[in-house]
Amino acid sequence: MDTLLWPLKVAVAWVMVTIHKALVLIGFPDGPGVAWVLSIIGLTIVVRLLIMPLFVKQIRASRGMQLLQPEMQALQAKYKGKKDPESRQRMNEEMMALYRKHGTNPMASCLPLLVQMPIFFALFRVLASLGAVATGNYGRPSIGPLTMELAKQVQASSVFGASLSSSFMNSSVTQVKIVTVAMIIIMSVTQWYTMAQLSMKNMSTESLNSDNPMIRSQRMMMYVMPVIFAVSGVNFQIGVLVYWVVSNLWTMGQQFFTIRNMPAPGSEAEKRYRARVNAKRARKGLPSLEEEERAEAAAKAEAEGRTGGQRVQPVRKNRQKKSGGQNSDARPDVEQDATDEVTDSEDSASSKSHGLSDEEIARRRYERRARQRREAAARRKAQAKKKRNR
Fold it and tell me: How far apart are CA 18 and CA 15, in angstroms?
């Protein structure tokens, strides 16, 4: 195990030692103490920043899973009652095609956790090896930059009186057991809450009521994972528990910000988001999001009805030939009318979305069209004058 994890152990030790040196430079005491505890917290922050793209992918995958729920439910209804191997295989194939279509993967929500596991075990092995490194019995002179002297400092550092390298199972000190149990409880609760945020609060009604096996497995994991960590936590050193608690707290804050500001469509979080935004818009005298969406939909329907569902393209001007003279088929007025019709429909949608009255929209439309016709008349006059001077 140590051989396989050796590169990661060196990387973990290097990050911890580097952060410790930086903390000492800004005034923290050298030697055993809080600086080494903060170095583990710093290691957690570095890791979480590095896996930020995976978190974004996790959020996108979660949204994709919710958006495909109507199609997923239709697929389940299609194969309902069919339990023969061929039908199950076709259902799985069509389900995977849906995932590819929406660019999502139900396992993407586990990526941040899976990527952290090797680092988690590397930190576990580094802390477990401190005693051997500190006494010179490790088999290597150091773990990267973590020398014998530094290993003694880390080993002597503590959290609420519990050594960073001690665990519930390998210590008879009451303080270690109390701190371990407290941190395991915090770790399990935060683990459950982070998964509940993603699986319940930011999930549409269709997804919550879905019989999709992937959704059911996510709900099951929400309860199973905290239990697994609670049971196995008695074997983790205090330093590892510090890492995991900080990581869970980071995830909670990250998900809270994301769900609050970018909720999934149809979720309870989106309802709260709309309520907050509408309250702010009301204080500014602006229409609500729903009113604005209805106005935009009405304007779009009006524009489509006026143009027969097709966008009217402006008539291209017939360019004058080099020999002089204007094509007799040129129709500037027709061109201007077509252009005005398109612009009117676009401006109507834009103006209504900003809460303008019909009278204000009509006035602005009249002024714009009058200005455009004056400009067109001036251009024609200039062209005629230029033609006479030739």
Answer: 5
Question: Per this entry, what is the length of the chain?
Answer: 390
Q: Which DSSP helix (H) or strand (E) runs through 162?
A: strand 162-163
Domain boundaries, the chain: 1-156, 159-282
pLDDT greater than 90 at residue 285: no
What integer is the mean pLDDT of 114-135?
Answer: 84
CA angle, residues 218, 221, 225, in degrees to nearest 5? 155
Residue where the block lists tokens 């430079």? 25
Could you tell me if 243 and 44 are in contact, meaning their C-beta atoms sit under 8 angstroms apart? yes
pLDDT: which is higher, 91 or 107 = 91
Q: Residue 201 has which token pair? A: 């609060």
Dist. CA 305–CA 307, nearest whole Å = 6
Q: Which of 192, 209, 211 is nearest to 266 (CA)?
A: 209
Instruction: Tell me the CA distances in angstroms from 117 to 13, 48, 247, one per residue in order.
Output: 16, 12, 12
Euclidean distance between CA atoms 71 and 98, whole angstroms: 8
Give the ranges where 103-147 is alpha helix by DSSP (H): 111-128, 130-135
Dihedral angle, C-alpha 164, 169, 175, 179, nearest 10 ° = 70
State the Cα–Cα distance between residues 87 and 84, nearest whole angstrom. 6
Residues 34, 28 contacting (CB under 8 angstroms):
yes
Q: Best-predicted range by mean pLDDT among 95-99, 166-170, 337-341, 343-347? A: 166-170
Q: If residue 342 lies in a helix (H) or strand (E), which one and from where to where?
A: helix 332-353
Indicate if the pLDDT at residue 265 is higher than 80: no
SS (H, E, C) 51-62: CHHHHHHHHHHH
- Within a 10 A sphere around the Cβ of 232, how many other Cβ atoms? 10
Identify the weakest region by mean pLDDT among 240-254, 304-318, 328-342: 328-342
CB contact at 8 A, 197 and 222: no
Residue 208 scores a pLDDT above 80:
no
pTM: 0.64
pLDDT digits (tens, 9 = 90+) for 210-264: 555 656 666 777 778 778 878 888 888 899 899 989 988 998 888 888 888 877 7
- Measured CA to CA, the distance from residue 241 to residue 178 in angstroms comes to 13
